[in-house]
């Protein structure tokens, strides 16, 4: 059974999807499990217990007995260094979740924008169907009076049918988009009531948005995080060059004679850490170069997207200024009713202005899609 969530804004829908999206829920659980797994990598090794009982052999005293319990551990600074590394790795997991979350929410927002665009088209097509029906009724009346031929009446009927079919297509598209939106919401149906775009198309200046992206965009932050992880790995490798330690208790002896005391051991780091510091340094250099290259590419892509957006916005404003004060369809219909235009002339002129209006709606929709991508880091 579908549960209907009454939502009147894109923001409220995105909040629902963030909570209900099954992929995000699963990824959140995965991130938590990996975070705990990382923390377990900084635990002390298990203590060791050993015992000897040596009854055989030639001896006058009692049987020899010995037991020992020891705890091995790395040099104390290693644990602090590894703990810092785990924190950085956990943060990287969170950033990976943020990247996926923004992808899901950006897709959901695009679906909402698509519904608004389709509603705008539907409103326009509804008016056009009414006009096409009026024209057909008028032409049919003229045909019955034998003032026009069958060819003109068929053209008027086909025009009316085409407009009706467009409405059916739009309704079908809206249904499909709602299903996709419901799927993103974990199967819970969403009732999206808005039929107007909620945000202004105006943007901040280029540099301000880029500075904001560097602070908030998880893709960019992930690059910096990879650098930090590499640098912390280098610190850890250096700390691992210090000796491992062992401490414990030993008791040994025969019959009523025994000895007991502490056990201390130190490993000599001759081979285990060989070349690991050099490898960590190379990784740091690689991550810095990689991050710099990716950041440069990201800025180039952003700059192109920003420039394309401004060009499209300028074009949209021109369409708005040209079409906003015109009532072309009504004027054309009046001219047709008065007999100033034949049906073919009326239809050709009407198509020209309708195509211009549809192009304006399409540009407006694409602008909001581009707007979402430019400000995706805010989701």
Automatic annotation (TrEMBL):
It comes from the Bacteria. This is Transporter. It comes from Echinicola rosea.
């Amino acid at each position: 059974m579908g549960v209907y969530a009454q939502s009147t804004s894109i923001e409220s829908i995105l909040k629902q999807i963030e909570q209900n999206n099954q992929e995000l829920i699963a990824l959140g659980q995965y991130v938590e499990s990996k975070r705990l797994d990382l923390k377990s990598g900084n635990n002390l090794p298990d203590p060791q217990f050993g015992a000897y009982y040596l009854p055989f052999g030639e001896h006058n005293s009692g049987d020899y007995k010995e037991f020992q319990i020891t705890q091995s551990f790395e040099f104390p600074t290693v644990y602090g260094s590894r703990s810092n590394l785990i924190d950085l790795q956990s943060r990287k997991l969170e950033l990976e979740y943020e990247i996926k979350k923004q992808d899901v929410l950006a897709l959901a927002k695009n679906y909402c924008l698509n519904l608004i665009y389709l509603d705008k088209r539907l409103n326009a097509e509804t008016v056009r169907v009414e006009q096409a029906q009026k024209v057909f009724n008028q032409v049919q009346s003229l045909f019955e009076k034998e003032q026009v031929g069958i060819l003109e009446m068929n053209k008027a009927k086909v025009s009316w049918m085409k407009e009706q079919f467009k409405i059916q297509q739009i309704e079908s598209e809206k249904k499909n988009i709602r299903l996709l939106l419901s799927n993103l919401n974990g199967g819970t149906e969403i009732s999206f009531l808005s039929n107007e775009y909620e945000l202004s198309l105006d943007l901040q200046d280029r540099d301000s948005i880029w500075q904001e992206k560097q602070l908030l965009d998880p893709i960019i932050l992930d690059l910096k995080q990879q650098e930090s992880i590499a640098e912390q790995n280098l610190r850890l490798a250096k700390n691992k060059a210090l000796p491992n330690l062992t401490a414990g208790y030993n008791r040994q002896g025969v019959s009523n004679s025994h000895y007991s005391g502490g056990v201390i051991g130190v490993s000599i780091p001759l081979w285990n850490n060989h070349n690991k510091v050099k490898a960590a340094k190379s990784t740091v250099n690689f991550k810095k170069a990689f991050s710099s290259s990716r950041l440069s590419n990201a800025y180039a892509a952003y700059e192109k997207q920003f420039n394309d957006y401004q060009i499209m916005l300028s074009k949209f404003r021109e369409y708005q200024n040209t079409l906003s004060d015109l009532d072309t369809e009504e004027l054309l219909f009046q001219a047709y009713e008065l007999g100033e235009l034949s049906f073919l002339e009326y239809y050709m002129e009407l198509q020209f202005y309708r195509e211009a209006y549809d192009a304006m709606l399409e540009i407006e929709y694409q602008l909001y899609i581009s707007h979402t991508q430019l400000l995706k880091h805010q989701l």
